[in-house]
Every structure is written in C-alpha cells, then in structure tokens.
Amino acid sequence: MEPFRTLTSLAMPLDRTNVDTDQIIPKQFLKRIERTGYGDFLFFDWRQTPTGEPIADFVLNDPRYKGAQIMVAGKNFGCGSSREHAAWALSDYGFRAVIAPTFADIFYSNAGKNGIVLVKLSEEQVDELLKNASTIPNYQLTVSLEAQTVTDGRGFNASFEFDAFRKFCLVEGLDDIGLTLRHAAELDTFEKQHDAANWLKAK
Amino acid sequence: MSNPKTLFEKVWEQHVVVEPKGEPTLLYIDLQLLHEVTSPQAFEGLRLAGRKVRRPDRSIATVDHNVPTTLEGRLNIVDQIAAKQISTLRQNCADFGIELYDVDSRQQGIVHVIGPELGITKPGMTIVCGDSHTSTHGAFGALAFGIGTSEVEHVLATQTLPQSKPQTFRISVEGELPQGVTAKDVILAIIGKIGTDGATGCVVEYAGSAIRSLSMEGRMTVCNMSIEAGARAGMIAPDEKTFAYLRGRQFSPKGDAWDKAVAEWSKLPSDPGAMFDRELVIDAATLVPYVSWGTSPGMVAPVTANVPDPANAATDIDRKSFERALEYMDLKAGTPLAEIEIDRVFIGSCTNGRIEDLRAAARVAAGRKVSSHVSAMVVPGSQQVKAQAEKEGLDRIFREAGFDWREPGCSMCLGMNPDILSPGERCASTSNRNFEGRQGRGGRTHLVSPEMAAAAAIAGHFVDIRTWEVREEVIA
Does A181 sit within 8 Å of B30, measured CB to CB? Predict the structure, then answer.
C-alpha cells in the first residue's frame, strides 16, 4: 500500500448525498476476478449515456477537474453494498482522499485498506468546500494526514479527527495481515480454548 | 446483577483474542460465508503471499449473485465473465479445502438464506461475509456483519479481524403489529425514521414485544436491512423461537450437545439494566404498510400517502437529492402512491425470499390473476425453500395466477444475472435497495413487503394490503 502523508491537489465537488457504492461502481463490473482496472468504470452510469456518450454536466467529465485527487461529497458517502471494487475504482482513477460529513462503515474500512484517506468535516465546512471547488478555478486543497488538517492556502483551515492506529497504517503503508500475525501466539492459545465451545461451531 | 451486559457485549467479549494497546481489538471469527463475487481477489491475495486458509472448516461457500434463475440458464451460463467467476470459486474451494454448495447442490441458495436453514448460523457466533446483508444472521443473536474483500482475505488467513468496538443502539418496537403490517414494514419504518446513516457506527439490538412476536423469517427480514440504516450489524436476542427453528437442522448440535448449546445460548440476551449508547422506542400501533418512492431506502412513505414535495426538505442538499430522485423515478410530488402503476414484480432476495414470505405472497395471489400489463416473478431464496414451497403447492398457486416460478439465487435484487429491469421499467420489489440502476440501468424500484408486492402484481398498481381480502384457507 502506498503511504499517505500529505497531499495537495485539485478538488472535485460531487454535490450529492448518499452516494452509494452501486453508483461508484455498477454491478456489471463486479464479475471480474481482477483487483485492478476499475478506474474506467468509476461512476459509469453517471458518466455516460446507455449508448456510451459522455454526460457533459457530470462533474467527472468536466475538463476543469481533470487530474483531481481529492473529492468533496455530501453525507453518507459510500453507503450500500460492501463491494471493495468501489475503493479500487476510486483509487485506480486517481483519487487519494474524499472529504464528506459522514461515510458508511464498510466503505470506510475498504478505503483505508487501499490507501484512500477519508476526511470527516462538518456539514458547514463541506458546504463551503463544495462551493469553493465549484466556483474558484483550479481550487487546490491540502490534506495533511500527519497534521490532521485540510487547508486551501486562502484562509480555509480545518482540523479533523482520525483514528490513531489507522493513521499509523496509512502513513506507513502497512498490510493488515502482517500486523495481525504479530499476535500469532495469542491467537493459537485463544483458538484452542475457543474450539472447545461446540455451540459456536459452524459444523 | 453486577455489571449487566448487552447481547452484543457478551458476544464481543467471548471473541476477543487480544486487545493491543492503541490498536483495534483482534476479534475471532467463527464463520465466514463466501460467494463468487467478493472472494476471487482474496484467494488470489493468499496465493501471492504464499498463505493458506487457517480454518477451512470455519468457511462455507455457495454461488448466488451471478447464477441465472432458469434451469437452462444455470446449466450453461452464457455470460462468460460470470461463468469464469463461478468456476474460479470452484477452483478456489477445491484448492483450499472449503465446502462449496454449488449450482447443482440441493443446499444451494442465497448465502444468507442457507446459513440459517442448514443450522450453520447459531446464536452467539461471530459471522462475516463479503456482502453487506450479512447482518441477516443477527436474527439468531449472532454478531454478523459485511466486510470488503481485503477483510475476506484477512479472515481466510487468520480467522480474525481487527475491529474497533462499535456503539450499541437499542430499537424497541412495542405493542401489537396491526393487521397487514409485516417485518418488512417495521424495518422500512425504522430506516425512514432514523435515516440511511441513522445507525452508522452502531450495532442495533431490535427488542420489544413486536420484535419478539415475529417469526425467525420476519426477524431475519428486519436484521437484513440494518445496513440500510447504516448499522454495522443488527441483532435480536435468542429465545424459544430461535431454538425451535434450529432444532434438528443439518448442522445443529444433536443430543447432549444440543442441551448444552441451548443452555449457553440462553445466557446471551441482554441483562436487565444493561446500558445502550442510544435508545429508540417505536409504538407498533403507529406502523402501516410502506412503499419506497425514491432512490434511497430512507425515502419511504405509507401506502396511503402521496409522493412528498422536495420543497419541504430540511436542507438545500437534501432538496436537490429529493428532486434528483423524483426525476429518476419519473414521479411528481403529490401523486398518491396507490395510483402508481407498475410493470414488473420481483418476490425474492435475502430480505424476503424465505418460505414464510412465499406463503404470505401466495395467500394474496391465490385464485387471482396478475394484471395484463405486469410481468411478475417469484424466486425462492434457496433450493430448500423451493422444495418446501413446491411440497405445499405454492408454485401451483403462483403459476396459476400468472407468476413466473424460478430457480434460487439473488436474481433481480441486484441485476448481476440475466434478471434485470429494462430502462424506464417500474418494479414492486421485495428486495432491499432502491438505488439508481440497482435492478438494471434506468430501472425504477419500489421496496415493499411480499404481500404488498403480490397485491400490486394483481392490481397493476400499489394497493393498501389492509383492505385486501386474503384467502387463508388456500394455504395448507
């Protein structure tokens, strides 16, 4: 996983609430068995008509936001299906951070495992960023995970809360399974006792 | 009692492997359910890292999302990408020693239907699956939640997951449910009330006399849609109904082991005086049959209501979302929901594809005919549900009424198989999500109970099931 410390990038506004993972990556692309190559299908049904014509007024098609690595969106981003393909699609397209008032739990976990930083700011702060990103040309934001701040170099300065352990993993780019295996001895001991509980056995 | 605990806390504490300082708790996972869509990359990850599956006996797999629901279709899957995903699961299960209920198995079905019916799901367990509707299994007093593919890999490799402890939220539904109001209406009402992020970060315990009065199938319907309110999981305390459902099932304990298991499971319900981080009490008498009108499960209204006016939305961004939803759904504010005409009906899914759901829909459909402008299908949740329904003659009732009777699978809940809506088609669906394009691009989904879906199929539009004459006598 690529470490994440500080990122300065153009910000793309997605002025919608409850953006579900079915929209982020529609079902027809979930049949693939690969982990890469989902970027082309990001927001597929919002990006193009059924006949494949680009939908001009969808923000991802707006040339002003080409190359944006930070997205600003409405509350409950990433709700719905547990598909990690949503995180793979965002990451593959180039997004490294999403700023919103709230995120759905499973998506929050999936994003972290793919080096995407999810920043929770208040609804008022997000509204301001949505407005700025849609009206100010080439609006740049800096997300510092180390300092836990979002700044725009023109007066916007917000700090955000972030779980310390998750931060450590993102900053170091650490793989979870390796971290868990540090506890292999405790796991062996626990499992031996736990296996005696027949009423918790699958079969 | 000293230090009273909630159901959730008891299950959590029995599964703590280690609590490293400054890190999430390492939680032991009793059971992982696998299916074709969210597992291939996890197995590939294991291979790349040279890891094996720690406990193949604590995983089971089936095929459900991609499988066509016609006999011909499933024996020869035309969609080559879907076929490859299914054959990849077969190979992975063979390579890593995991039991697979394949397309030709008598135990095949939607993963959240077969776990309970085989007696694999049990009270007090921790259960995960790469599917957000894993919360279904919480109906048995298990802690069950959906995970992403990286976590699927993590569980395969270690049989654990690092987890931050969620908050607890008790939702009590007290009193008697009015006639015509089902488990589906209970959960739609809850989501409508607290919103699609109303329980984010929480494990919900559903309690109260109305919840206790529900059958196991009804409880599964309620827990199934916990995720639609943002909850990490939903749980219901195990009781005599839970034990009666599990007794004698294929993988339920037998003999002395059964008695010992019941004794252990009986310790699980929340202690009197246990504290929850949040509480909500709902009066069952205020509940009615609901219909969703928008593109998010929180956009629901009583069947007797009109399509709401976006002008009344609380915030600017909510108003825009309402307007966008009405545009997508091709609905005008003020239209009575009961006047909305439909093209398709889907009865099935992990929400409402169990035997009791099919019985309820059959009672409504018996002796009647599907409207001439509606195409309706019934998809049993599993092979066992299908066999039981056929034994009871439900398939005949549905067929005679003009419903299509199908083979088990996820079907039109998520459109990953040939069962999809065409652009612009409007569907009364017993599934769980009304997202844009969920049932097929441009398709318009209205979430309802099985009874309401069957009645809509016959009337050609939504009807208030409370005014419908139900013929109880036709069902054995």
Answer: no
Q: Are residues A116 and A144 in the same domain?
A: yes
H or E element, residue B120? none
Say yes or no: B327 contacts chain A, CB-CB below 8 A.
no
Instruction: For B98, list phi and psi in degrees, rounded to 5.
Output: -105, 135
Tell me what ipTM this predicted complex has. Answer: 0.95
**DSSP code of A3?**
-
Do residues A61 and A121 both lie within one domain? Answer: yes
Q: What is the pLDDT of residues B28-56, one digit of tens each?
A: 999 999 999 999 999 999 999 999 999 99
Counting beta carbons within 10 angstroms of the beta carbon of residue B272, is it exposed (0 to 12), middle (13 to 18) or buried (19 or more)? exposed
**Contact B156/B147 with Cβ under 8 angstroms?**
no
Averaged pLDDT for residues B274-279: 98
Task: Give the rounded percent of residues in chain B with a pLDDT score beyond 90.
Answer: 96
User: Could you tell me if A168 and A186 lie in one domain?
Assistant: no
Question: Cα-flanking dihedrals φ and ψ of residue A114, to 5°?
Answer: -120, 20
Cross-chain CB nearest to A82 (options B38, B158, B416): B38
CA–CA gap between residue B349 and residue B112 (Å, rounded): 9
Domain around A199: 174-203
* Contact: B28, A194; criterion CB under 8 Å: yes
Q: Does residue A45 sit in the same domain as residue A111?
A: yes
Give Cα A5 distance to the centre of its chain.
15
Tokens of residue B25, six digits: 């708790």
Beta-carbon count within 10 A of A128 CB: 16
Q: How far apart are CA B145 and CA B184, in angstroms?
A: 20
Instruction: Indicate whether A21 belongs to any domain.
Output: yes
The nearest alpha carbon in chain B to A168 belongs to: B23
For residues A168 and A179, membership in a common domain is answered with no
B202-212 pLDDT, tens per residue?
Answer: 999 999 999 99
Rounded to 5 degrees, φ, ψ at B84 are -65, -35
Q: How far apart are the first and last CA of chain A?
A: 36
> Residue B476 pLDDT more than 70?
no
* Residues A165, A179 share a domain: no
Rounded to 5 degrees, φ, ψ at B92 are -60, -45
As beta bridge partners, residue A100 has A120
Q: pLDDT band for position B175 (50/70/90)?
A: very high
Contacts of A105 in chain B (CB under 8 A): 200-201, 230, 232
Q: Which residues of B15-51 are buried (b: 16+ CB within 10 A; e: fewer)?
A: bebbeeeebbbbbbbbbbbbbbbbbbbbbbbbeeeee
Give pLDDT tens digits for A55-99: 999 999 999 999 999 999 999 999 999 999 999 999 999 999 999
The answer to whether position A133 is within a domain reads: yes
Give residue for tokens 């700044």: A151
Q: What total number of domains does chain A contain?
A: 2
pLDDT at B471 over 80: no
User: Is A166 contained in some domain?
Assistant: yes
The whole-model pTM stands at 0.96
What is the chain B residue with the closest CA to A51?
B441
Q: What is the nearest CA distance from A19 to chain B, expressed in angstroms?
A: 9
Do A144 and A192 lie in one domain? The reply is no
Segment B226-240 shows an average pLDDT of 98
Q: What average pLDDT does this structure show over B454-476?
A: 86
Q: How far apart are CA B429 and CA B452, in angstroms?
A: 9
Inside any domain, residue A1: no
Q: Please give the pLDDT value at position B474.
A: 59
Residue A157 sits in the same domain as residue A179 = no
pLDDT, tens digit, for every residue of B378-397?
A: 999 999 999 999 999 999 99
Q: What is the model's pLDDT at position B405?
A: 98
**What CATH number is attached to the domain comprising A120?**
3.20.19.10
B436/A76 Cβ within 8 A: no
